[in-house]
Amino acid sequence: MPFSHHSHSGQFCPGHARDSLEDVIQTAISKNMSVFALTEHMPRHDQDRYPEETSTLETHLANEEAYVAEALRLRQKYKDRIGLPLGFEGEWIRPESEDLIKQSLTKYPYDFFVGSVHHVHTIPIDYDHAMYRDARAKAGGTDERIFEDYFDAQFDMLTSLRPPVVGHFDLVRLKSDDPNQSFREMEGVWARILRNLDCITAYGGILEINSSAVRKGMDEPYPKGEICQAALERGILFCLSDDSHGVDQIAHSYPRVLAFLEKVGIGSVIFLSHREPTEAHGQIHDDRFQALRTERMGLKELREHRFWGK
User: Fold this and answer.
1) Whether pLDDT at 271 is above 90
2) Which of 19, 110, 142, 223 has an alpha carbon 20 to 30 Å from 287's alpha carbon atom?
3) pTM of the prediction?
């Protein structure tokens, strides 16, 4: 698809991604993408390091400052070739995470951010199977119990932050025993999913269709079709993301995602773009994001976009 609202580079996400931010942008341009949002991970507290990390909160903060400066430089350099909304991916790990996220929003001119949950009981649930099993044991020992705790953590994130874009809504299934299983069969889990969708509806958030689930071997992107259908019933809008971590993952699996949109019945997608203060507002009504414009594209126009010629 011609849009992605979730991406990472090796330059500012070392250990988890590859390639410079400029190489990533140039690759998106070469694929005839129209919008490629920049959303590096936000700073995390020292106790929330991943196993291979030696960085501290201080170095995370310095990395964020360098990221914003480079992103603004590149947005100006390539402004006539591609839209580059400036954002970050939030990290909701513990109550103190809220302070870090709000600090980032206050300090830098972000257009938006992606609200994500990667941890349950402060343990990463998408890093490897061993850590997922540790988090599952702490949650009660079953996939159903950790699913419930994950969606409870997500609800806390949604109500506290009201993220403009909600990232990989059902990420918790990645390392589960059956990543393709239905959530509807688990009454407590499904009730929490519907509650969270109601929350997104209430504040006007956008749900990303994230192709990385397909890239990682699952049958459907995040979120699953059953969740998308429940979101459609509530009038929730969708945007597209590749959650790329390097040039080789940009727009990965997008043909399958397009088929998924058609199958589920998603008739249009939203895309975001930076606007100057004098331009008209879009559909996100939040004083924190006055520089963000939203537009809608129907599936027919999406299929005909020049992106598919690459």
Assistant:
1) yes
2) 223
3) 0.94
